[in-house]
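Molecular record:
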Amino acid sequence: MKKFKLKIDLVYIVILSAFLFIYSCFIYILTSDNIRKAIDDMVKGYVFVKLFIPILIAATLLYLVWRAIVRHIMKPVKKIAEIAEQITHEDLSARVDIKQTGAETKYLIFSFNDMISRLESSFKYIVESNSYIAHELKTPIAIIRGEAEIALKKERDNEEYKKVIGIALDESKKMLKTIEDLLLLTKMTYRPEFLNFEAIDLSQFLNDIHEQSKILTVEKNISVDINVPEVSERIKGDEISLRRLFFNIIDNAIKFTPQNGQIKINIKYKKRKAIVSISDTGMGIAEKDIPKLFDKFFRANKEKNRYTSGSGLGLPIAQSIAELHKANITVNSTLGKGSTFIVTLPILPH
């Protein structure tokens, strides 16, 4: 392989030397006072001795300098190729070191590392999703199968068959809800353009949510109060997804607030921001679990923390919607006293 490269190098040097020699001869003839004499000198070989050997040496040096420059330029590219060969679907942690490269190639390396980071996040999401789907769908399918097998073991009356069908229907709804939530998360992550942003009167919007929330709390006799400023502000957002954001938080509050509890919705405007807080008198959240609440598929220990029952997708969906609206969600909570979810949204200029 090295001999082959050496031959290629020699061919390049000879071609470069010949080109420079021809060019030099042409210039020599044009700049000579006596063109005929210049041609005679070339025929006799005087010019060859005077020009070709220096040109050959110069071409060799020029070629070697060019190769050194190319080798220096291609070094980070070669490094990228080596890292790319190491990367597999099982390990996407490899990165090219930007510090040891020149300014010319930093942008290329930064883009390459960023691409690998996105791929790593995507693969991680796929692996987590597959694991979660397998776990979540396995239980309802097992229940449906078990009920069906019991029902088919012997003849039963209509009421017993209806009970089996009802259980199968409930479990099917749970599976469908899980699949819909996962599809929504994927769409918001990879196709955010499906949202329809428009100006929304926030006070009117939250008043509507308040009225609908009261219907959801009737069964547990939970009161829902709202405090809205006299002066309303507008935000830019997708109304359907924002409704989902707030209802996911409110549904979470209803789920983990005991009978005869209370939920409060409070709105205030400060420094061109709308601050919406949703507080409940539920069982609260352990401090160590608060940072993980918005992680996809996170659910704390069910035996010790009953508030974690559910699919574990409601709050991640709310967080994804908030990010698409350049908003953020923070949580304050105390075990045994309740939780407060605070949504901060940018206000449209007047």
